[in-house]
Amino acid sequence: MDTIRKLLSHLGEYRRPALIAPLCTLVAVGMEVLIPYIMAMLIDQGISKGDMGKVWLFGGIMLACAFVSLVIDSASAVFGSRASTGLASNLRDALFEKVQTYSFSNIDKFSTAGLVTRMTTDVTNVQNAFNMSLIIATRAPISLVASLVMSVVISPKLSLVFIAAMVVLSAALIAIMLKAMPLFGQVFKRYDALNASVQENVTAIRVVKAFVREDHEDQKFTHAADEVHDLFVRAESLLAFNNPVMGVAIYGCIIALSWFGTHSILAGDISTGQLTSLLGYVFNVLISLMMLTMIFVMVSMSAASGQRIVEVLEEEPDIVSPEDALTEVPNGSIDFDAVSFQYRSGDGEGQETLAGIDLHIDSGETIGVLGGTGSGKSTLVALISRLYDVDSGAVRVGGNDVCAYDTEVLRDSVAVVLQQNTLFSGTILDNLRWGKPDATLEECQAACAAACADEFIDRMPDGYDTMIEQGGTNVSGGQRQRLCIARALLKRPRVLVLDDSTSAVDTATDASIQRAFAEQIPDTTKIIISQRVSSFGSCDRILVLDAGRVVAFAPEAKLIETCDIYRDVHDTQNKAGAGADFDKLEGIAYDPISQRFDPAFASELPFEVDPAVEVELARKAGE
Ligand SMILES: Nc1ncnc2c1ncn2[C@@H]1O[C@H](COP(=O)(O)OP(=O)(O)OP(=O)(O)O)[C@@H](O)[C@H]1O
Ligand SMILES: [Mg+2]
Fold this sequence. Notes:
Layout: H1 2-8, H2 15-47, H3 52-101, H4 104-110, H5 112-154, H6 156-203, H7 205-210, H8 214-239, H9 242-267, H10 272-314, E1 334-341, E2 354-361, E3 366-371, H11 377-384, E4 392-397, E5 400-401, H12 407-413, E6 414-417, E7 426-427, H13 428-433, H14 441-450, H15 454-459, E8 467-468, H16 477-489, E9 495-499, H17 507-520, E10 525-529, E11 541-546, E12 549-554, H18 556-562, H19 564-575, H20 579-588, E13 590-591, E14 596-597, H21 599-602, H22 611-622
Parallel strand pairs: 3-10, 3-11, 6-9, 9-10
Antiparallel strand pairs: 1-2, 1-4, 4-5, 7-8, 11-12, 13-14
The structure holds adenosine-5'-triphosphate (ATP) and magnesium ion.
């Protein structure tokens, strides 16, 4: 009930059609109920007495009633769909707007696929149920009650037949529905799985293909689709019993009415016309009853959908700007004071992802961050721009707690090039201006030059007006990374975080990007997360993380002396030349038949390969 109230509060400007639709239905039903009654008068006063004038009169009235009811009924259908589609569109808007306010942890909670299902399938369910309710839910009970009242007025005794039939029919229908409803409930749950599978596979189709998992994914999908199919067949087979049950009830009523009715006519209790109209009411009553049960099923099925929508609408975004928020970040200094953090969902649950982090970074410093996968590097930097809130301790930027800033101001000043960065469909320029809407072409070009993106943009036929496909699929991994860096640079941030953002860029380009940083944004604090020690060339200090704890934080020369982890990584990578690239390539770019490195495969990799590494590997393959 509460859910329905909350959903309906989004009707907004569609409140009027939502009121008109049932009102129209009310009038239409009134007309329909009158028709059998007038029919009785036509028979009794016209046909029986041979009065043609009365026949024409009542016949005309009946026709008029039927026509009016038809027109009004259509109007009610139009208003009904206007109201329900309006409600759906308002709900989608509200959901979308709400999701925009979500923090990362809110999104983690629902999952992206979950949010998509809620905005599409669930809203459609609610829309259909609302449309049905507006029209049928007013029609059925009114028609039922009005027809019953009319029957009782005509003959209380004969109406007992109706009542008996109603009891039997309701019992049968309810039994069928109770059996069918859980099945429908399961269907909707399976739909979620189906949707998730579709979404996952369509967005990740490249990965599926690369791993030759098409057959496996195909089977998975077929299995999910078959389950939905089986459940539907079972549920619908149950519902198929509705019709014969209805038939038995209606014809049973007609036979009983004819039998008892003829006796009543002979006894002089009722007239022929009245019996005829009673027969008309049989249909009205029993069909209304059936519609009521259908509505009941429909509404309870969409109740789950409604609930899921309300959940999203009511979720409190857990990161909001404070009342008297600071609107300027004075400088790029960063402090972590005894910070601990733990994810609320997923694998990270139950153990601290970061524990007891104490860090002090001066404005303008360049910091490298090194650590194994899952050591908490991405998590650490997410706290700086307050993508997540700390559990204990405090994170300060420019001397103020991050929670004191307006989140928009903070995120403009702390530009993070995320590990899973995305470009949006639109031109390259559109994508760059995402960081700063009013950036001039010259500014964009300068940012691209610093990010070493200019060389490939200039080579593209349309230059800065080249269209980027959805998800940035028509640029290489390294090109995408460089565009994302340029986009972040345009913001002229106080703090720039690159989360493994040059992993797909060759070592030489990586180094020239860093040189450009040092020249162009000397005052910006730069945090560079990388798996390659070669990326740390320009770093003042390097932070070594392990299992969510700071192992060491010192200049490189000192780390090589004192930190075992760093020295190991440094030695291994230097031995292999551009080590990380080398390892990565040796694993991936091989010919599956000879199991050896094949330079032909290297050219198809999603990242650019250092030519030196390629030569070295080709040499090894030739041995
Ligand atoms: N959104 C999330 N929800 C739940 N747990 C998460 C989430 N993101 C990361 N984790 C967990 O937190 C831990 C640290 O993850 P994090 O992404 O910070 O590692 P990382 O050092 O950046 O690794 P990588 O080098 O692979 O990028 C991991 O164990 C991971 O499973
Ligand atoms: Mg990471």
